[in-house]
Structure formats: structure tokens, C-alpha cells
Specification:
Strands 3, 4, 6, 7, 9, 11, 12, 14, 15 and 16 form a 10-stranded mixed beta sheet that branches. The chain has a 3-stranded antiparallel beta sheet with strand order 1-2-5, with no helix packed on it. The radius of gyration is 24 Å and the shape is elongated. The longest helix has 5 residues. The chain is built from 1 helix and 16 strands. By secondary structure, the protein is mostly beta strands. The termini are far apart. The protein folds into 2 domains: about 90 residues, Immunoglobulins (Immunoglobulin-like); about 100 residues, Immunoglobulins (Immunoglobulin-like, Sandwich), CATH 2.60.40. The N terminus is likely disordered.
Length: about 240
């Protein structure tokens, strides 16, 4: 007696597609460690700022990477922007988009894909708009024994209503956050800004050491802003 078994009766080794990518929630503007989606200063970027966003790693053993999709409309016209694949045994879970223009809101979602070419569901949509960054002037370099320097910078012609002053101190060449303060511009809308240490952070003097500072511009809309470059100064 011959037993005939059709192909349909053979067991199939099925692998489910990857799970939906989970985005990392954005941290508060003044957080020392910035997470989620934000502007990031890039000197190599045409507009000196890019957009960085992060997500949580998928746990599939067959995971091959992630694909990023972008649009300038919230609900349509998304195109594939980039693929994140394994590099030195690691698949990154962040992306820096340095091809953005100023004053345009960009929308993103992410899909995970596996070794079989299967794609998971799209993540939730996130968006960000980069505005023109502040340009710092001083303090910078070795400033001697000046323990209460004057902080000088210029905003673009359209001055933001809020900014964050960030000051970090170097300890064994590793910077740690000293002050991250959100400040509202209620009166002075002159692009040229000069602030004393006391006015910025209510501190009269800094100890000798190596510091760096920057200005984060905060736009009037959610997820809208820019970062300046870091300026390093040394008090002897």
C-alpha cells in the first residue's frame, strides 16, 4: 500500500514578520541626556543642523534591519529614505537625517525587516522642523581668571521666544551637565544677545576649569528648534 501525501500536508516552517517598531519618547527640552527626536548640530550639514531620532531595538532573531520613510506631509507621499543594516554585529537604533532644509516640517516612520525580506507594521509617525541656529561669539578659548564671563551670541532675524542655555564642565576630558536652563525672551527680541552669568543661571562665578556651552533655540511649535555649536572655554 502506498501512502500519498500532498505538499499541502507538509509542515511549513513559518516565521512571523517583525513586530512594530517602538519609538523612544522625547525627553524634556532641558534634559541633560536628550532622547527621542531632536535637532542636532552638524557642521557638515548645509544648514548646520540635522534631525536625529531614536527607537527601541526589535528582539527578533531573524531581524535584518530597519527602513526609514519620510514625507513633508503628515499622511501621504512617504518615500523610503534609508536602510539601517547590521554593521560590525550591531544594528543601530537611531538615524540622523542631514538632508533637511530649514523651516520645513519632516514626518517619519520606521519599519523593521527580517532576513526573509518580510516587513513589520510601520511605527507611529514622528515629526520635526529645524529652524536657523544661534551663532556663538564668546566666551571661547582661554579666558584667564575671568570667573564670570559675558556670554554673547546672535540669533537669526526671527528671534525665538525661548532658548536653552547649556553649560557643561570637563572632568578628565569627559563633559557632564552643569546647567540646562530654559529661558523665555519676554522683552529683548534683538538678534544680538549679551547675557551675564548671573542673569543666565543666577550664579556669580565659576571655578577654574574647562567648560563648554551652547544655545538651543526653541520654536513656537512642538518639535521645532535648532542647536548651536559647542564653544569651549578655560578659566585658569
Amino acid at each position: 500500500m502506498l501512502l500519498v501525501v500532498s505538499c499541502e500536508d507538509q509542515p511549513i516552517n513559518k516565521v512571523d514578520p517583525p513586530a512594530k517598531v517602538m519609538l523612544i519618547e522625547s525627553s524634556a527640552d532641558t534634559s541633560a541626556v536628550e532622547r527621542g527626536i531632536d535637532a542636532i548640530y552638524l557642521d557638515s550639514s548645509p544648514n548646520k543642523n540635522a534631525i536625529i531620532f531614536q527607537w527601541r531595538p526589535n528582539q527578533e532573531t531573524t531581524l535584518a534591519g530597519y527602513e526609514i520613510y519620510r514625507s513633508t506631509s503628515a499622511n501621504q507621499n512617504y518615500t523610503a529614505l534609508a536602510k539601517i543594516v547590521e554593521n560590525f554585529g550591531v544594528i543601530d537604533t537611531f538615524y540622523i537625517d542631514n538632508s533637511v532644509s530649514l523651516n520645513i516640517r519632516y514626518y517619519y516612520f520606521i519599519k523593521a525587516f527580517d532576513e526573509l525580506g518580510q516587513y513589520g507594521e510601520p511605527s507611529d509617525t514622528i515629526s520635526y522642523e529645524v529652524i536657523e541656529n544661534a551663532v556663538l561669539s564668546s566666551p571661547v578659548g582661554i579666558i584667564g581668571n575671568v570667573t564670570a564671563p559675558l556670554f554673547v551670541w546672535d540669533f537669526p532675524p526671527i528671534v525665538p521666544h525661548y532658548f536653552i542655555f547649556r553649560l557643561e564642565i570637563s572632568e578628565n576630558e569627559i563633559y557632564r551637565n552643569l546647567y540646562s536652563k530654559l529661558i523665555e525672551l519676554t522683552v529683548d527680541y534683538d538678534p544680538h544677545q549679551e547675557w551675564t552669568l548671573v542673569k543666565l543661571i543666577a550664579v556669580t562665578a565659576l571655578s577654574p576649569g574647562k567648560y563648554r556651552w551652547r544655545i538651543d533655540s526653541i520654536g513656537s511649535e512642538l518639535n521645532q528648534g535648532a542647536e548651536s555649536a559647542w564653544f569651549v572655554f578655560i578659566i585658569q
